[in-house]
Design brief:
By secondary structure, the protein is mainly alpha-helical. It has one domain (19-151): Winged helix-like DNA-binding domain superfamily/Winged helix DNA-binding domain (Arc Repressor Mutant, subunit A, Orthogonal Bundle). It has helices at residues 18-40, 44-55, 61-68, 72-84, 106-114, 118-126, 130-151; strands at 59-60, 88-92, 100-104. It has a three-stranded antiparallel β-sheet with strand order 1-3-2. Helix 1 packs across helix 6 and helix 2 (44-55) crosses helix 5. The longest helix is centred in the first third of the chain and has 23 residues, at 18-40. Keywords: Cytoplasm, DNA-binding, Transcription, Transcription regulation.
Length: 152
């Protein structure tokens, strides 16, 4: 009996499905990010939250959720895990106690600083130039924004 030769997904039924190309590329990115982020003790969503806070500390949970496209039921456990790791603190806003602000701790700032190496390592793994990736990112963001507007 001879072994069954499997075709690449792009060569058969899934070829021409842009959503599969984006999905499978996301999986490939996850494989690149995982060992890098494991060194920092972060998951990918935690890394993104840390990047956002490194850019502007003291954001509200709502502001973080808007930027990450996550609702509070997903974001709150993520923030609680960052807090348990000693990377962030959560505090009620002094002007509006319904609002919770998230702030990096000293340890969190150190990890966020160390995480500055991540984009360069990922860039190297892509085999593309920053300019090539910039064009691709702009096209994907434009597509995402159009899809979100049409799904609303």
């Amino acid at each position: 009996m001879r072994p069954v030769k499997r075709k690449s997904p792009d060569a058969d039924a899934l070829g021409g499905h842009l959503c599969f190309a984006v999905y499978s590329t996301g999986l490939a990115f996850n494989r690149v990010y995982k060992p890098i982020l494991d060194r920092l003790g972060l998951t990918y969503p935690q890394y993104l939250a840390m990047v956002i806070l490194r850019g502007e500390d003291g954001q509200t949970v709502g502001e973080l959720g808007d930027q990450l496209f996550l609702d509070s039921s997903t974001l709150t456990p993520l923030i609680k895990r960052l807090e348990a790791a000693g990377l962030v603190t959560r505090r009620r806003d002094s002007e509006d106690e319904r609002v919770v602000r998230v702030t990096l701790t000293d340890k969190g700032r150190a990890v966020a600083e160390e995480a500055k190496c991540v984009p360069g390592e990922v860039l190297a793994a892509t085999g593309r130039t920053p300019e090539q990736l910039g064009v691709l990112e702009r096209a994907i963001v434009q597509l995402r924004d159009t899809l979100r507007a049409n799904a609303a």
